[in-house]
Amino acid sequence: DAGVIQSPRHEVTEMGQEVTLRCKPISGHNSLFWYRQTMMRGLELLIYFNNNVPIDDSGMPEDRFSAKMPNASFSTLKIQPSEPRDSAVYFCASSPGTSGDYEQFFGPGTRLTVL
Amino acid sequence: AQTVTQSQPEMSVQEAETVTLSCTYDTSESDYYLFWYKQPPSRQMILVIRQEAYKQQNATENRFSVNFQKAAKSFSLKISDSQLGDAAMYFCAYRRLTQGGSEKLVFGKGTKLTVNP
After folding, report:
1. pLDDT band at A58, cuts 50/70/90?
2. pLDDT tens across A23-46, in order?
3. Does B91 touch chain A (CB under 8 A)?
4. Would you call B74 exposed, middle or buried from its count of C-beta atoms within 10 A (0-12, 13-18, 19+)?
5. What pLDDT digit, counting tens, does each position of B26-69 carry?
């Protein structure tokens, strides 16, 4: 299995530009999570989906952030317009999403730098 | 809301020695899961060990074991026979138990572990 795939691995952009981060979860996983990691705030959940439906988006900072999951194999996190304080590592994770004990599998992360 | 606290920003250990990383959490739930994740410099998040709150027996995975004290809401990680490859950030995480679907992880701020040769 290829694991969770994220692209790009690194993104450098200028303030005000639109940024789109992409994630392909592990095949067969029903739950997908977007986390953000910063030095100040640590790892925090932005949004998660079950069966392509957003369940909890309370961690999305503001209207500049949006996330979609059009199908079971693809999700995007968009920032428009980007700001320097959005600089962070963004992780996507997926899990089988069925009841019981199950692990969240993390992608390698996208390091975003907004100048 | 659930919170997870790791009171040790940094720890160091000599190779082959034992080290314990601390974690406390706050929740009103009676059933939940606890995890320790390792993040090496590669940035990849790797699950080290998990504990179900309804199980009294402490989880063990090779050189890694936990001391789970439910009443005290404490979940420490013990690494025995430390190896250079254990050097990483370690994150304690909490997740609610649900009957269906999935749930988010709530992470502590992490402990940076250095292993000295």
Report:
1. confident
2. 999 999 989 999 999 999 999 999
3. yes
4. middle
5. 999 888 999 999 999 999 999 999 999 988 899 999 999 999 99
Exposed/middle/buried for residue B107 (C-beta within 10 Å: 0-12, 13-18, 19+): buried
Residue A31 to residue B102, Cβ atoms within 8 A: yes
- Is residue B11 within 8 Å of residue B111, measured between CB atoms? yes
Radius of gyration of chain B measured on its C-alpha atoms: 14
User: Among partner residues A96, A99, A104, which is closest to B105 by beta-carbon distance?
Assistant: A104
d(CA A111, CA A91): 9
Q: Residue A1 pLDDT > 90, yes or no?
A: no
Stretch A71-100: mean pLDDT: 91
**Mind telling me how many Å the CA of A30 is from chain B's nearest CA?**
8
The reply to whether residue B107 touches residue A43, judged by beta carbons under 8 angstroms, is: yes
| Residues B105, A33: C-beta atoms closer than 8 Å | yes
The whole-number pLDDT of residue B97 equals 75
Question: Please, what sign has the CA dihedral across residues A60, B44, B77, A26?
Answer: positive
Chain A and chain B share a number of CB contacts under 8 A equal to 57
Taking the CB of residue B20, how many other CB atoms lie within 10 A of it? 15
- For residues A85-106, one letter each, b for 16 or more C-beta atoms within 10 angstroms of the residue's C-beta and e for the rest, the string is ebbbbbbbbbbbbeeeebebbb
Cβ atoms of residues B51 and B34 within 8 Å = yes
